[in-house]
Design goal:
Blueprint: H1 2-42, E1 49-50, E2 68-76, E3 82-87, E4 94-99, E5 105-110, E6 118-124, E7 138-141, E8 146-154, H2 161-168, E9 172-175
Parallel strand pairs: 6-7
Antiparallel strand pairs: 1-2, 2-8, 3-6, 3-9, 4-5, 4-8
């Protein structure tokens, strides 16, 4: 019995080493792959796309909610910063979230945190800015050169859909 166990030990150890190696490779590679595919689906870099109302066919956003309107802006701050502005709709939930190239959420604001009903954010790489900062803009440093800005707006009253949709379409992201 000991002889068989001794013969099997190298195979067991090899299997464990391979399993751990595959696990670690997947753990570190899949998030980047997922974001790369998501960015390819949602639109051109540094341009906001206001999605249609979610139905059973919608899959640009992972597990979309039919109660939310989504706007997306894939970002690329390798050349210039990105300026994100929006009027926050009144009387409904609203949020903006920033995700890096490995799907990590690194910044979020919602309607309760925004003062004055308007956001103005300058998303930039670590490089210094070669022109003056926009007055009143919040500076956010991106941990990766590419990623995604995701806006969510709650449709809390179907009778107000047109007004809610118009408000969310004030959001913009453009190179600064």
């Amino acid at each position: 019995m000991k002889v068989r166990l001794f013969r099997a030990l190298p195979w067991v150890l090899a299997t464990l080493v391979i399993a751990i190696g595959v696990h670690l490779a997947l753990l570190y590679q899949i998030p980047g792959y997922v974001m790369e595919k998501a960015l390819a689906r949602v639109g051109p870099a540094n341009t906001i796309v206001h999605g249609k109302r979610v139905d059973a066919t919608a899959r640009a956003i992972v597990r979309p909610s039919p109660e939310l309107l989504y706007s997306t802006c894939p970002y690329d701050v390798s050349q210039r910063p990105l300026r994100i502005t929006a009027e926050v709709p009144q009387g409904t939930y609203w949020s903006v979230s920033f995700f890096d190239d490995e799907t990590n959420n690194f910044y979020v604001r919602n309607d309760r945190q925004v003062k004055g009903g308007h956001i103005d954010i300058l998303l930039m790489a670590a490089a210094p800015l070669d022109k003056p900062l926009p007055k009143g803009a919040e500076i956010v440093h991106a941990p990766s050169l590419k990623g995604l800005v995701l806006f969510r707006t709650l449709i809390n009253d179907d009778a107000q859909f047109a007004a809610i949709d118009a408000a969310r379409r004030t959001a913009d992201c453009a190179p600064y």
